[in-house]
Amino acid sequence: MSYIKIEDLSLGYDSEIVCSNINFEINKNDYLCIIGENGAGKSTLIKTILDLKEKKAGKILFSENLKKSEIGYLPQQTVVQKDFPATVYEVVLSGMLSQLKYRPFYTKKEKNHAKQEMEKLGITHLQNKSYRQLSGGQQQRVLLARALCASDKILLLDEPVTGLDPQVTQEFYGLLKSLNEQGMTIVMVSHDLSVLKYATHVLYLKKKVPIFMEKEMFIERYGKEIYND
Ligand SMILES: Nc1ncnc2c1ncn2[C@@H]1O[C@H](COP(=O)(O)OP(=O)(O)OP(=O)(O)O)[C@@H](O)[C@H]1O
């Protein structure tokens, strides 16, 4: 089942084109890993798909199976976000914001949903703690629970393991893998090539012609290039 199709997309800022000729498709249950050098346009691509940034050219087509509001997003964390003054429960619950529309309060059902996601990720005991007092790994679990409140279909994650130690990183990857096995579509920007072992597809952003392929074929053709870089 198709979710998103990208055709001849160009990304950029002001008069500068960062990357063009981007073509790929995301289908239900894919695990797409987006890789590329610093500045290749990975974060810009995610923001453009989410409409947080205007595209320069091309098409981003959403199928009837997916609304833009049904995407769960886990942004690259900034120092300011790490210091966010709210409780864990409040941060997770804010994942429901897109469903509030003009309603100024959360329903009991939405609150229960937030609690279920915290339970699923093993962070219920942290719910009344301040988000900024948590470790990096705990913060990422909170943000993942928040993204899961927004969507049970697809998650877009922008370098989610930056700054996490190797063990916490592997735990986080394990969480994503089990979500993917349960039917969740995963799209992840990563500098960590070890994550390719979980991926079904790879998008390699390069200035001239970005490459999109099934993972096995990609490793066969471009393994040397990316691992020797
Ligand atoms: N707000 C902005 N205004 C102007 N240029 C920007 C802006 N944000 C990013 N850029 C430029 O666009 C290019 C792509 O940036 P982007 O953050 O998408 O790359 P990336 O592949 O995610 O890099 P990294 O791996 O370092 O996170 C870079 O040259 C960057 O300097």
Automatic annotation (TrEMBL):
Residues 4-226 form the ABC transporter domain. Keywords: ATP-binding, Nucleotide-binding, Transport. SUPFAM superfamilies: P-loop containing nucleoside triphosphate hydrolases (SSF52540). One of its GO terms (molecular function) is ATP binding. The keyword Nucleus does not apply. InterPro entries: AAA+_ATPase, ABC_transporter-like_ATP-bd, ABC_transporter-like_CS, Metal_Ion_Import_ABC, P-loop_NTPase. Belongs to the ABC transporter superfamily. This is ABC transporter. It comes from Faecalibacillus intestinalis. The lineage of its organism: Bacteria, Bacillati, Bacillota, Erysipelotrichia, Erysipelotrichales.
